[in-house]
Each structure stands twice: as structure tokens, then as C-alpha cells.
Write a structure and sequence with these properties.
The complex is a heterodimer of chains A (about 110) and B (about 425). With about 110 residues, chain A is mainly alpha-helical. Chain A contains two helices and no strands. With about 425 residues, chain B is α+β, with helices and mostly antiparallel strands. The chains are: A mainly alpha (about 110), B alpha+beta (about 425).
Chain lengths: ~110, ~425
């Protein structure tokens, strides 16, 4: 250990702490932003294995995995509804906006 | 005192001179463009195409006019339903408010590239016969076209064109749902309550005969005629790009656009990921916001797209009566590769998806998807050729190493 090493260590620690504090503050601000329902940043859904999308166990439609959790993608899709929700390695973004004019059942009202 | 007396005289003189200059400028006829048919000795194909197809027309046109067997493309940007009407009627290409452009040869303009503006020329008196119409969405969306169509007019399904909703770079928005689109574009002013797209003056749209409007409207449950947006004066994609990019209200600004135009302008606007009706997540046309692979268009995760119809007159053999038109169609479809012109490469470079790289299909705007296996897949080749392209497909020089697959263009394709 020499002087140079000690200097580097002393300088690096505060920077790391600052980075972590900044990261936490950013996360807190993002969580508290309720001005709009719109998604502000891409939210790739990442599973525990680091893959962008969760694995599924069901073919041809949504179902439940072995642990009982609901799948959110369809493996081996066949119908249009399955195809658009098929499992993929693409970036996917969760967005469920609040739209006051939507019908209670989620349907679209007629145009004015 | 002497000077002060002269001032009015000078003012009158200056005003008079300015007026003379103004009248002279107004009276001076605009410099006449050359006649398209006198540009050179190459055979000419007159094309009307949607403005989303201009990048392909220019790229392919550059290769063709400089080919060993040259063909010159003379074209006019026209909205899909309008050009379809011209092909059906048929109407000739004439001089009007929409400029007629041509692709110059390297000998005529060595500095010209497909990113350069195309020079203009004039149609002959009485107009020139249209050889090809290139639309950019399902013609079934053009509800006012006359029926039945002429028996000698054929429609060939060309490459796939994707569309999307764009926002300024300064906007914080990254995605839009079909429901948000319905409320934003279907309701006047801010009455749709689709935050933040509440200002109709900042919602840019195209006229109801433009493919961009037809396909984007269908994706959000509307007809193009129902879009409550601001249509720029010239009703062009370029105007929408500029209006959205320079909006002074970036959060409220939104527009619609072909993705190949967006691909060339990613430094000016952002494309919003799109979540369709019944879809759990929003997706970009590409695998990510920064890639160019159109993965989500090809596998059905991104919904606003349509094939581009190629309209031409055919003879009894089913082929275009103009052999040069047939050559263009075959090049675009990948059915023909000339030593100095690969149409497929130009299609891919233009941001379009060749049909042979698609894994899904549909039969009308906004219609349901079904799985599709092209008879001669080019998916691997496509993935290798897009910007930042990469493919996990095996390379090959013969079918032997491809198992049940087929070696095509250097890659083991599925079939």
C-alpha cells in the first residue's frame, strides 16, 4: 500500500456514496410522481434471471406457471390475441393510463 | 437644411425602386423545369407513390438509373387513395401543385445521393402514362375508390410499412396505448382527457386519404376521417416531423409518421412504444428503442403496419405490360437480383420489411394477425442487413449444413 493507493481509496468512497444517494433520491422522486398516469421511462420487465421477459410454461394461451403465478406472455401463440402477447426478448413497457371516459367495463364510448 | 430637403426625394426614389423590383420579380416567370422525357435516353417509369415510399423510390432509382441496363424513375408523392384512383381511372401524371421529381444519373449529378432532394421536371403536355402506383396501406381502407376495378389492373403485395406515434425529444412520454390514441385523436380539443395530449393544435395528423392516417387511425379504433388533429398545409410527413420536432409544447405534441421516415430522423423526434387493444405491454417497432430490426413488426408485437400495394397494368400473362415496371416489382420482391441492383437490399435499407421476413400477416387495416410462414424466408438475411444488424442464423454456402432449412443468400433460413 502506498500513498497513491490510499488517496484513490479516500476519493472513491465519497463518490460511491454520493452515487448511491443520488440513485435513491431519483428512485424516490420517480415513485412519488403522480401527476400523470403516463409512464415516464421505459420499464423493461426483468425476471430474476436477468432476462427482459418472464418465462412461461403454457402453450397457446395465458395460464399459470408451476408456482401458481400468472403468466404475462404466451408461448407458441396461435390466435391474434395470443400473438400480440407472445413471449419475446424485446423491450416491453408497462402502461395503464387513467382514462376517465373509459366505460366501466373498459370499453370505448362512442365519439362525440 | 439642404440635406433635409432631399430626404423626401430619396425616400420616393427608394420606394419606387423597391416597387419596380417587386413587380419585376413577380412578373419574371419561374425558371422552367426540363421536360421529364428529354432528360436522357434511358427508358422512364412514371410512378406515383406515398411519401413514406420516397426513400425506397430514391434508393432503388439511384441504382436503376446507373445500372448497366438503366431505367430512370420519375415520380410524384401522392396519398395512397389518390394514387390508387389515378391508377384505376386511369389518370396520367400531369403538372400540378405537387412537384414531379426524377432520379438523376451519376453523370448528370455526381454529388446526388438518395438523401439529397430529388430535382424536378415537367410532364409532357397532356401528361405521361403512369406505369406504377405504390401505396402504403390496404386499399380496402380507401372506401371511395370506384368498383369494380379494371380487369387489367393488378395489385401486388409489397414490403411492409410500419407507422407510429412520434413525440418531441423533450417529451417525457415513452408509450401510448390504443385507448389513449382513441381519446386523444377521436375527441376535439382536450375533451378526450388523454393526458398529456389535450391540445388539438399540437396533435398532428395527415389527411384522410394518406396511408399514415388510415393505418394509424385503424390501430386506435378510428377512421382516418375521424382524426381530430392538425393537418399541416401541405399534408406531408416532412411537415409533421418538423412541427413535432420544433414544438414549443413538447409534452402535448404528438404526430403520426411512417417508421422509415422516423428511422432517418431519430435525432429529431422519438417514436412512442405502442400498446394495442387487448395487449399487455407496449412495444417499439424494433426490439428496443435504439435498434432497427423491426422485430416487433415481424413477430406481431407491434400493430400499426400494413403492406404496400403495387398497382400496375398487366397483360394476359399476368405480368406488367411495361417490362421495366415488372423489373422494378421483381427487384422489390426479391424475385430478381441484377448484378448491379439488389432490390431487397434497398427495401431493407429504406426501413421497410420485405414480406419474406415477416412472421405474421393480416388482411385489412387494424385487422387481426395470423401466423405467416413465407414460402422463401429471408428473415436471417434481413436481420443481418439492417443497421446494427446481427443474426444468430448459421451461415452457409449450400443446403447441406442447414438441416431441414434452406441456404439462401448465405444464411440457413427456415425454408
Amino acid at each position: 500500500m502506498n500513498l497513491t493507493t490510499r488517496k484513490l481509496t479516500r476519493n472513491t468512497v465519497p463518490l460511491t456514496v454520493l452515487f448511491l444517494v443520488g440513485l435513491a433520491a431519483t428512485a424516490t422522486l420517480a415513485a412519488c410522481d403522480t401527476n400523470t398516469s403516463a409512464v415516464k421511462d421505459p420499464i423493461p420487465v426483468v425476471d430474476s434471471g436477468g432476462r427482459i421477459n418472464p418465462p412461461t410454461t403454457q402453450d397457446g394461451g395465458p395460464g399459470t406457471s408451476a408456482d401458481g403465478a400468472a403468466n404475462d406472455c404466451v408461448q407458441n401463440p396461435k390466435t391474434s390475441e395470443e400473438i400480440i402477447n407472445g413471449c419475446t426478448n424485446a423491450v416491453k413497457i408497462a402502461k395503464t393510463p387513467v382514462l376517465p371516459l373509459l366505460s366501466p367495463d373498459g370499453g370505448l364510448p362512442p365519439l362525440p | 437644411m439642404h440635406i433635409e430637403e432631399r430626404r423626401p426625394i430619396r425616400l420616393v426614389f427608394a420606394t419606387f425602386t423597391a416597387l419596380i423590383g417587386t413587380f419585376a420579380t413577380a412578373a419574371k416567370p419561374a425558371r422552367a423545369a426540363p421536360a421529364c422525357t428529354t432528360l436522357g435516353t434511358q427508358p422512364i417509369v412514371f410512378i406515383e407513390a406515398g411519401d413514406t415510399q420516397e426513400p425506397l423510390v430514391k434508393r432503388l432509382g439511384e441504382r436503376l438509373v446507373n445500372a448497366a441496363s438503366p431505367v430512370r424513375i420519375v415520380y410524384k408523392n401522392k396519398r395512397t387513395c389518390d394514387l390508387a384512383l389515378d391508377m384505376i381511372t386511369p389518370n396520367a401524371m400531369v403538372n400540378d401543385s405537387i412537384p414531379i421529381k426524377y432520379i438523376p444519373s451519376a453523370a448528370e449529378d455526381p454529388a446526388w445521393t438518395p438523401r439529397s432532394p430529388a430535382p424536378v421536371c415537367d410532364a409532357d403536355v397532356g401528361g405521361n402514362v403512369l406505369g406504377l402506383g405504390i401505396g402504403a396501406t390496404f386499399l380496402s381502407s380507401c372506401t371511395t375508390l370506384p368498383t369494380p376495378r379494371p380487369v387489367d389492373l393488378t395489385e401486388i403485395k409489397g414490403p411492409v410499412q410500419a407507422y407510429g406515434f412520434i413525440a418531441p425529444l423533450a417529451s417525457s412520454q415513452v408509450a401510448i396505448t390504443a385507448e389513449e390514441g382513441y381519446f386523444a385523436y377521436g375527441f376535439p380539443g382536450g375533451t378526450g382527457q388523454a393526458i398529456p395530449w389535450l391540445d388539438q393544435g399540437q396533435r398532428y395528423s395527415r389527411g384522410p386519404t394518406a396511408s399514415t392516417a388510415l393505418t394509424c387511425a385503424a390501430a386506435i379504433g378510428l377512421k382516418a376521417s375521424q382524426l381530430k388533429g392538425t393537418v399541416p398545409t401541405g399534408n406531408t410527413s416532412t411537415e409533421i416531423l418538423n412541427a413535432v420536432a420544433s414544438s414549443v409544447a413538447p409534452e402535448a405534441a404528438i404526430g403520426i409518421m411512417g417508421t422509415e421516415i422516423y428511422d432517418a430522423a431519430r435525432d429529431k423526434v422519438k417514436l412512442l412504444a405502442f400498446k394495442s387493444f387487448g395487449q399487455r405491454y407496449a412495444y417499439y417497432p424494433d426490439k428496443s428503442a435504439t435498434s432497427f430490426d423491426k422485430q416487433n413488426v415481424r413477430d406481431g408485437h407491434y400493430l400499426p403496419w400494413a403492406p404496400t400495394p403495387y398497382l400496375t397494368r398487366v397483360g394476359g400473362n399476368g405480368k406488367a405490360v411495361d417490362l421495366n415496371v415488372q423489373r422494378i416489382v421483381d427487384l422489390v420482391l426479391g424475385a430478381r437480383v441484377d448484378a448491379d441492383v439488389s432490390g431487397l437490399d434497398q427495401v431493407i435499407a429504406s426501413g421497410l420489411v420485405p414480406e419474406c421476413a415477416m412472421g405474421v400477416q393480416r388482411s385489412f387495416d387494424g385487422g387481426p394477425l395470423s401466423l405467416y410462414a413465407p414460402p422463401e424466408s429471408c428473415a436471417c438475411y434481413y436481420e443481418s442487413k439492417v443497421p446494427q444488424g446481427a443474426t444468430s442464423c448459421a451461415t452457409c454456402s449450400s443446403d447441406g449444413v442447414c438441416g431441414a432449412g434452406k441456404c439462401r443468400r448465405g444464411f440457413c433460413e427456415v425454408q
